Automatic annotation (TrEMBL):
One Gene Ontology molecular-function label: translation elongation factor activity
Native source organism of the sequence: Gardnerella vaginalis
Key words, A-Z: Cytoplasm, Elongation factor, Protein biosynthesis
Keyword Cytoplasm: yes
UniProt GO cellular component terms: cytoplasm
Stretches for region Involved in Mg(2+) ion dislocation from EF-Tu: 84-87
Function in brief: Associates with the EF-Tu.GDP complex and induces the exchange of GDP to GTP. It remains bound to the aminoacyl-tRNA.EF-Tu.GTP complex up to the GTP hydrolysis stage on the ribosome.
Keyword Protein biosynthesis among UniProt keywords: yes
Protein name in the entry: Elongation factor Ts
Family (UniProt): Belongs to the EF-Ts family.
Top-level taxon of the source organism: Bacteria
Name of the gene this protein is made from: tsf
Amino acid sequence: MAAITAALIKQVREETGAGMMDVKKALTEAEGDVARAKEIIRAKGIQAAGKREGRKAQEGTVASKVVKTAEGETGYAVELNSETDFVAKTPKFVEFSETVLNNAIEANASNAEELLAAKAGDATVKEEVEEAAALFGEHVKVGQIAKVSGPHVEVYAHKKSVELPPSIVSMIATDEAGAKVAHEAALQISAMGAQWLRREDVPADVLESERRVATEKSLAEGKPEKIVPKIVEGRLNAFFKETVLLEQAYVKDPSKTIGDLFKEVGGSALAFARVEVGKGSAE
C-alpha cells in the first residue's frame, strides 16, 4: 500500500476538484492507488469542491498555422503561457507567440521538448523563452503543442473576447472530400472538446475504467444485478457520444452526428487536435 502523503492528496484534489476528506477516504479505500481513487470519486458522484487551492490558472494564447507539404498539409498549434491576460493580449506577446510557432514549424516539432531544444537564431527556443520572461516581467513558458497532417487541414481559432488573442485552437485533417465539412467539424471540436476521433481510438485502460465506474455506480444506485450489464452498455454508449468526435451530436443540428456530416459528402476525418490555454499539465 502506497503511503497517503500530503503530495498525493494534493495531486488527486487538483485532478478531480474533490474536497480533502473525500480525497483522503478515496485514497484510503484505493490503498494509495491514484487512478483507482479517482475512479472511486467518480463512481460515488462526488462533486468538485469549486475551488482548487494551490492551482494557478494559466493565461496566454495559442498560435496556429497550416503549411503545405509534399503529402498535402500540416497544421501546427503552439500554446504560449503568461501569468496574466494583461500580458497575453499585448502585441509583443502575440508577435512572440508567432515567432515560437514558426520555430516549431522549422523544427517540425511534435512536442514541447523538441521545440525548446530547437534552434532560434544563435540561441535555442528555450533560451529565447527565458529572455522573453525577463522582457514581459512574468513567467513565460511553452505549453501544449499539436500537429496534424493530411490532404486537407482545417484550423479554427476561438477568442474569449475581441480584445484577447485566441485561447482555443482546433485542427482537423481530412481527405479532399471531407474538406467540404472540415470547418463545421473544427467548430464542433472547439465547442464540444472531443477526446478521440472514433470509439476504436479510446484506450483499453480508459474503457475498462469507464466500464468499472458505470458498474459500481449502477450497483450503488440499487439497480437489479441482472440488468446492470445492459445499463452499463447504455452508459458506455453515452460516454462515446460525449467524447468521440464522429459520434457527437452536431451542435447545429442534433438530429445528426459529425460522422453523418462526413458520410453526406463521402469524406473522411483522419485526425484532429484541440489546444486550449491553461488545459495542459499544471506546473
